[in-house]
Structures are given as C-alpha cells and as structure tokens.
From TrEMBL:
GO biological process, one term: thiamine biosynthetic process
Pfam families membership: Phos_pyr_kin (PF08543), TENA_THI-4 (PF03070)
GO-annotated molecular function: ATP binding; hydroxymethylpyrimidine kinase activity; phosphomethylpyrimidine kinase activity
Keyword Transmembrane: no
Domain annotation Pyridoxamine kinase/Phosphomethylpyrimidine kinase: ranges: 12-261
Matches recorded under InterPro entries: Haem_Oase-like_multi-hlx, HMP/HMP-P_kinase_dom, PM/HMP-P_kinase-1, Ribokinase-like, Thiaminase-2/PQQC
SUPFAM superfamilies found in the cross-reference section: Heme oxygenase-like (SSF48613), Ribokinase-like (SSF53613)
Metabolic or biological pathway, per its Swiss-Prot or TrEMBL entry: Cofactor biosynthesis; thiamine diphosphate biosynthesis; 4-amino-2-methyl-5-diphosphomethylpyrimidine from 5-amino-1-(5-phospho-D-ribosyl)imidazole: step 3/3
Physiological role: Catalyzes the phosphorylation of hydroxymethylpyrimidine phosphate (HMP-P) to HMP-PP, and of HMP to HMP-P.
Positions of the Thiaminase-2/PQQC domain: 319-497
Protein name: Bifunctional hydroxymethylpyrimidine kinase/phosphomethylpyrimidine kinase
Keywords associated with the record: ATP-binding, Kinase, Nucleotide-binding, Thiamine biosynthesis, Transferase
Keyword Cytoplasm: no
Length: 503
C-alpha cells in the first residue's frame, strides 16, 4: 500500500518550504502526497514578504473535498496563520477524520511559528490542536515558545522540555536538534516519561536549510503511515533529511537559505552505474597509483581504470566511510557482502595458483589465499556476521564473472582479479591523516594501510606485466576487457550499499 498523506500547510513559491516541501518529502519517503493550502505566502529563500489567508470556508471546503473522496493514511499539519484557521482544522479532525476513519490516523503537528529567515508565520499554536496530535515536532525555539521558557542549551534540557510538552498535551514530542549547539543535530522522540527514540544527525555546514523542519515532519508522517515502527520512522526521516541537506547547495536555488535536495537519494540511485556500458571509458586515469604499474602494459590498464576510479573515490561509500559518516546499516551490508565476496575470491586465487605456469607465481597466489582467509577470520571476530550471507545480485554478478574469467584463461583470470588488488590498494590514498579514536570505522579503515597487502598488489602487477608481455594480441584484448569490466564491478561493489535506504 502506498500511504496517502495529507499536508495542511502554507505555500512557498520557490518550492523549498511549506506545502511544496511537504509534497516532495512525502514522495521521497514513498508516499502519495495531497495538499490543502492554509495560507498563501509570498516568500523566497531570503524571507517572507506577505501572507494571505483565505476565508475559513475555503479551508473547510478544501478539507472536505479531500476527505469526501480519499482515504487518508496520515495528516501533517504545518502553518496555520490564525486562530480561525486552527479552529476549522480542529473541527474537521473531530467531525470528519476521527469519525469516518476506522483506524487511528497519525496526526503530525509541526508547530510552525517562525520561518528559518526569522519572519513570523503564526503567533502561536493552540493547545486544542496540540492535544489532537499523535506527534508534535517543534524545533528548539518553538519548543521553548510553547512552554514560555528560554530555549534549551543542550540535548538533556531539550529532552526535559519535550517531556513537559508531552505531559501537558498528551502527545508524543519529536524534539528537533537542528539549532542545538554542538556537533550532533539529531532528534529525540519523547513521551511523558521516557525517550522513545534518538536519531543522530552529525552536523553539516550548509546554507541549504530552508524547509528542513517541514520536510522532516512530512517524511515522518509518511513513514509512520507506511507501517514503520516509531523508532524506525524517526531514524529514516532523520537520515533522509540529513542527506537531502548535504546535497541541497548543488541545486543552486535562490540567494538566501536555499532548499534541501529532496530527491537526492533517488537521483543517486538512478545513476547507479550498472546502467553504463562498461566499454564507454571517458576519462583515462591521470592520477597517481598508490602501487605503481609494473611496466607499459599495466600502465595502460591503469589508464583504463579512470572512470571506475572516479566513481570509486567520489560516488561510492568510500568518502563517507573515511569520514566516519557512513550509515551503520549501509556499512553492515557492505561488510556482509564483502564476506561473501572474499570466500569466492579466495577460491579464484586458489584456481590461479593451480594454473600458474611458474612455481613463484603459484606460491604468490597461494599466499594471497592464506592472507584472504586470515582477513576473513578477523572480520568474523570483529564484526558479527551471519553464517550464511546471501549475496546481492551485484555481488553475485561480480563473483560469477571472476569464476568465469578464471576458467577461460590464466592471463585473462589475472586481469579480472587485478582490480580487487589495485583499486583496493588505492583506498589508502583517501585515508584521513589522523583517524580519531571515536571514528566508528577506525578498526576497519586502518587495515587499508596494510603493508602486506600493498606488497601482494605489487607482485600481482609484476605477474600481469610479465604475462601480458608474452601474451598473444587476442589474449591482451581479452585481458583488457576483463580488467575494465572488473574495475567497473569493483566500483559498483563499493557503491551498492548506498542503494539501501539508510535509517
Ligand atoms: N546543520 C545540520 N546538520 C545536520 N542535520 C541537520 C542540520 N540542520 C538541521 N538538521 C536536521 O534537520 C532537522 C530539522 O531542522 P531544525 O533546524 O531543527 O528544524 P526547523 O527547520 O523546523 O527549524 C534537525 O532536527 C536535524 O535532524
Ligand atoms: C509556508 C511555510 N511553512 C513553514 C515554513 C518554515 O520553514 P522551515 O522548515 O525552514 O522552518 C516556511 N518558511 N513557510
């Protein structure tokens, strides 16, 4: 079922806040958005210029038009400019929504009073409305205003105030930490006596903050209507808003505080590289290899890795992994897939060892098998993994590809396995200079400095160079193709975790 979510809110002709933001947020959260206009607001990213609030009958008629026709799975209420508008909504909730809908419809009230530009949008939010909310989503200042107290200065005080509001209204309160000092801008879902959920939102420095609160509460309404548990819905919407905030400036909308990129995640998912044919290499790599090529043949391969390396370093999990901001669920997925991959990878290395024409090469591949098994055992010690990992379609495509290439020809097999050494070795280039102790992936990324692995990569490159020097032209062509395909799969392998909806 696709949740049908109604937003009752004011407008923003620049599309970043109010009803416009709500509809985008609902769509991004997987729902069908509907909108009843409470006030027409002349505003842009720099501020509010005028507010026109239609007659109460007009608001009533809009609400009736929706509820006469559509089953509503959740309601998000934003700006209500005056007491009369609030009264109309309260009556509609009591007389229509609560009486005609069999199951309880979640009502998320965002007590909008002041726009992020500092302009007033409503004088107050009536307790009559707050009492009817399932969840109220005030920011720091709104929470303080509702309680007639000064704004909280730290998360603990914010939670205490949220608890007070929950007690006086009987509703849950999502206290939003966007304006808290400190590095975490996360949110707390609070009941009368306890914290039900906390979702972290590590600070992003951006001017694209217009409509953050509207978007968060709409996404929350939609995820609850979707059937998510409350903690899951809070996690999902907080992580999604943060991502939309992170990429908002790219939209280049307006000269003030611009909007979030509500559809950044969908855009990223749509760009997933499996759609790009492997043969379209547009930018030969000019970057320095951490482990240098072993001669002209491997140098040519390095240049062919250009596109994949760009994706690997910019669009995969690598940047977030290095910064420590990668979502835990995405990291876990990556580690699981890596575990499956390594099992197949070690069997492919073993096969190369059995095919190698010289004793030295046989020993080298066999040593790589042992190293891989050791890494895998360590992974199992450090990170709890299920006994049987289900490979994703992409992981399976990569591992099946390696199995097929190694079965066709030794030289081609070496070319297919090479990106796993070479691109992986490149990871040490992206390591932060200092990995702080509170970096959540410290243990993991420190292994990227492993000298033994860099040494094994140099040896694999020697083998490749030697084999290509003595190969036929047909074999070289096949080997190049296998290498480019494997580079692309390696980059995809590091990108696929981002396709998961993080919470
Ligand atoms: N600078 C930021 N870095 C990370 N997350 C942020 C930032 N600003 C806002 N958020 C997220 O957006 C949510 C809503 O923002 P907030 O400013 O608190 O609300 P409002 O837009 O109503 O003033 C925050 O609770 C937080 O989850
Ligand atoms: C119609 C309308 N509703 C709400 C806001 C608040 O926006 P923000 O989420 O940035 O506080 C706004 N600027 N306009």
């Amino acid at each position: 079922m696709i949740p049908r979510v109604l937003s009752i809110a004011g407008t923003d002709p620049t599309g970043g806040a109010g009803l416009h933001a709500d509809l985008k947020a609902i769509a991004a959260a997987g729902g069908y958005g509907m909108g009843v206009v409470s006030s027409l607001v002349v505003q842009n990213t720099q501020g509010v210029q005028q507010v026109h609030t239609p007659e109460p009958e007009f608001l009533r008629a809009q609400l009736k038009a929706v509820s006469d026709d559509v089953v509503i799975d959740a309601v998000k209420i934003g700006m209500l400019a005056d007491e009369t508008s609030t009264q109309v909504v309260v009556e509609w909730l009591d007389e229509v929504l609560f009486s005609t809908h069999e199951s309880e419809v979640p009502i998320i009230v965002d007590p909008v009073m002041v726009a992020s530009s500092g302009d007033a949008l409503a004088d107050s939010v009536s307790h009559e409305l707050l009492h009817r909310a399932s969840i109220i989503t005030p920011n720091l200042d709104e929470l303080a205003l509702l309680l007639h107290q000064p704004p909280a200065k730290n998360p603990d005080d914010m939670v205490k105030q949220a608890q007070e509001l929950a007690q006086s209204t009987g509703s849950l309160v999502l206290a939003k930490g966007g304006h808290l000092p400190g590095k975490d801008k996360g949110n707390f879902l609070v009941g009368t006596s306890s914290v039900i959920a906390h979702a972290k939102s590590p600070q992003i420095t951006t001017t694209a903050s217009h409509g953050t609160g509207c978007s968060l509460s709409s996404a929350l309404a939609c995820r609850i209507a979707n059937g998510d548990s409350l903690p899951d819905a809070v996690q999902w919407s907080t992580a999604w808003v943060r991502e939309a905030l992170e990429f908002g400036e790219n939209l280049q909308v307006g000269h003030g505080n611009g909007p979030l990129d509500h559809f950044h995640r969908l855009r990223r998912q749509a760009q997933f590289s499996l759609q790009v044919p492997h043969s379209t290499i547009s930018s030969p790599s000019r970057r320095q290899a951490v482990v240098p090529a072993a001669g002209p043949f491997t140098q040519q391969l390095w240049e062919l890795a250009g596109d994949a390396l760009d994706r690997f370093s910019q669009e995969s999990i690598v940047p977030a992994l290095m910064q420590g901001t990668l979502n835990a669920e995405q990291f876990h997925f990556y580690v699981e897939q890596d575990d499956y991959y390594l099992q197949v990878y070690s069997s492919v290395l073993a096969r190369l060892s059995s095919l190698a024409p010289h004793e030295e090469e046989r020993k080298m591949w066999a040593k790589a098998v042992t190293q891989t098994i050791t890494v895998e055992q360590e992974m199992h010690r450090e990170f709890p993994l299920p006994n049987i990992v289900e490979p994703s379609p992409l992981t399976l495509a990569y591992t099946d590809f390696l199995r097929a290439e190694v079965a066709s020809d030794y030289v081609v097999g070496v070319a297919a396995i090479l990106p796993c050494f070479w691109l992986y070795a490149q990871l040490s280039e992206y390591l932060p200079e200092e990995i702080k102790d509170d970096h959540p992936y410290k243990l993991w990324i420190e292994t990227y400095r492993d000298e033994e692995f860099l040494c094994a990569t140099a040896q694999a490159l020697e083998v490749m160079e030697h084999q290509l020097t003595h190969a036929s032209n047909a074999q070289r062509e096949q080997a190049r193709n296998a290498f480019v395909r494997a580079c692309s799969l390696e980059a995809d392998f590091f990108t696929q975790a981002l396709l998961i909806d993080p919470r």
